[in-house]
Amino acid sequence: MPRPDPVDPADRDAVVALLAAYADAIDDGDFQRVAELLADATVQTEDGTVVAHGRDQVLAMYEATTVRHADGTPRTAHLVTNVVVERGDQPDHLRSRSRFVVLQATDTVPLQPVVAGRYEDEFVRVDDEWRFSVRRMVPRLWGDVSDHLTFDPR
After folding, report:
1. Global pTM?
2. Range list of β-strands (E), 19-92
3. pLDDT, tens digit, for every residue of 123-154?
4. Staple partner for 25: which of 1, 33, 55, 154, CB 3.0–4.6 Å?
């Protein structure tokens, strides 16, 4: 079976850095930065349903659905692991899949995982910079999200 062309290590590193930047921004409660990272992206559910597209919709979505506590953060730690980066179907396109676990501790919730699942992301290179083009969130396991989300996703 032929192996696909490997991804340039610098391009893989850029994708991993984008995944980390997203986790840092959301954990910091910096939804403006999250929106900037996803400014060129469509955010989708597992079945491809679009829940937000572009900076303004992404910002509105996070502000409406993610609880920020007295310190301005969601009091979370997003852990992104098992990152696989592959070439996309066109030049200057990459895909990745990764696993995530969101830990949370608040004044009322002890440190615990609140959701785990996977990300299926697509990236496009624009002016020599990799950008998210699709962020598909696929939650698989749910814990107590009452201090994390403004709605019950189950």
Report:
1. 0.94
2. 42-44, 50-53, 76-87
3. 999 999 999 999 999 999 999 999 999 998 88
4. 33
Q: Where are the domains of the chain?
A: 9-142
DSSP string, 126-150: ETTEEEEEEEEEEEEEE---TTTBS
| Structure-token pair, residue 108 | 């009322």
Instruction: State the architecture of 9-142 in CATH terms.
Output: Roll (3.10)
The token pair at 140 is 């698989």
pLDDT digits (tens, 9 = 90+) for 59-100: 999 999 999 999 999 999 999 999 999 999 998 999 999 999
153 contact partners, CB below 8 Å, separation of at least 6: 139, 142, 145
CB 104 within 8 A of CB 76: yes
pLDDT tens digits, residue range 33-50? 999 999 999 999 999 999
